[in-house]
Fold each of these.
Amino acid sequence: MHPMLNIAVRAARSAGTVISRAFEQQDRIEVNTKGTHDFVTNIDNNAEQAIIDTIKKSYPKHTIISEECGEIKGEDNDYQWVIDPLDGTTNFVKGIPHFCVSIALKVKGKLDQAVIYDPMRGELFTASRGKGAQLNGFRIRVKQHKELDGTILATGFPFKQKQHTDAYMNMFKTLFMKTADMRRAGSAALDLAYVAAGRVDGFFELGLKPWDTAAGELLVIEAGGLVTDLSGGHNHIASGNIVAASARLLKEIVQDIRPHLTHNLK
Ligand code: IPD
Ligand code: CA
Ligand code: CA
């Protein structure tokens, strides 16, 4: 295992321990609201601290970009860790056991290492650039569907940007009519990991942040899939609007989404 992936795994597991212990003692979770329908808990912060401590111990000069504490600029900006300490906070707060820790390392702007860890199921998704993607050490691959018929797509609703509801629902309807079914499980990072593992056939969502998608993007690519914005282009990090699937299926999804793109989503 690449030494930096090894550190990412150590960091994800220690955050996972913080999260799963807290999940058993719901009364100790302190919930705050940081934006519209956007929760943060003391556990998001504790898990984040566990990750940062682990990374800083081995790589004190690297830059860290993490959801709750923002950017901690290091002396060496070539190495950037992009962290979501708890993806699926709403599930966590509601007692739904579906959430994860997401950690990616970018080297000179390119995704290089990725870990997504589901502490409730003990599932560790990992990827290293050029080396494929694994679930608990076993190789995973994106399902190579050629058409939407019979597929399951994961998605997330635009609950923080309800101005996009009509556009989103139109996309959803067009795709839903062609697929077997849809899933809205509540963790974008796990949605991407599940695309990589072939558990779902594709994923689309609007308005995500870099820490929601960084690790999942490398997992999907290393598992033989593609990640783009809603037009099939490369603007998904800046826009936060993302599609992931096999190349053939992604082409179909993008074609179906295109007629519903409003000016702000193009
Ligand atoms: C959220 C989850 C959710 C997605 C939201 C994200 P958080 O992340 O990934 O599935 O629909 O847009 O913000 O806030 O739980 O880290
Ligand atoms: Ca997130
Ligand atoms: Ca989060």
Note: The mean pLDDT is 96.
Amino acid sequence: MNAQPRRVEHQQTDKGTVPIYTTAVVEQPWSSYSREDHATWATLFERQQRILVGRAAREFLENQRKFGMTPHAIPKFDELNRLLTRATGWTLIGVEGLLPELTFFEHLANRRFPVTWWIRRPEQIDYISEPDLFHDLFGHVPLLLNPVFADYMQAYGQGGVKAHGIGAQALTNLTRLYWYTVEFGLIKEDAGLRIYGSGIVSSKGESIHCLESPAPNRIAFDLKRIMRTRYRIDTYQKTYFVIDSYEQLMRATAPDFTPIYAELAELDSIPAGAVLPTDVVYHRGTGEGWAADGDV
Ligand code: HBI
Ligand code: FE
């Protein structure tokens, strides 16, 4: 019988939340989930699925169905792996909480996606500052069934391992790429802009804000622009980047980033809410693009 894994969470201190890191890989203690844990999953699952109809990328909800995810119980990693590993070679592994970046990258580089085994507490239902089981399973896992996105995630991990060897600035550039695509990315579909970022789909408010609020910028994907753009982790994003397709993401990670890091090291970073004259900016939720300084 495996020992019950630890629940490694951010520590609340008088100076705010302090992340605690862990590297252990653990079995999902599915039988240890309480009725309250399953109820938290059900509440989040039903609420987010209702909000995401017409807002999430087409295959996001489709893939949740393919996985057989339902609100009735927290899914079992082993069952999800039966479909996932056959489809794109990815395997979900249980972890106790936030991994050091290099450990995280090494897992992605080997098509292992780390999923936190525990789910948030009821009082955290509307916001949690760290990836819990709901964020990882509901937010990240569905798109790992998409072969191109699955390749992008592995290429990202390989890039992360390399960036770790290059230095802090390279790592910052690369983490911004993850943030503005995997976590907070939008994609252009025929009917308009849609959400594929996991940080958005696991958040009630931001799923609505990112497409319908006049406040944020929605800018066409540009690798170097993204790598230079700062972000905040505790508020809605001020800028969302829009891809045309997951193939565009995959193409963007094809070149060696080393010369790009060197070029960006000479340039200032860009504030999260800025719009540059060179940006192609989208109307909210419609998908028509126009250049910020005139018609395309
Ligand atoms: N650890 N468990 C876990 N899950 C994540 O999503 C995660 C992580 N460690 C680092 C990390 N993400 C981010 O810094 C990535 O941008 C690298
Ligand atoms: Fe995440």
Note: The domain at 11-291 is CATH 1.10.800.10 (Phenylalanine Hydroxylase).
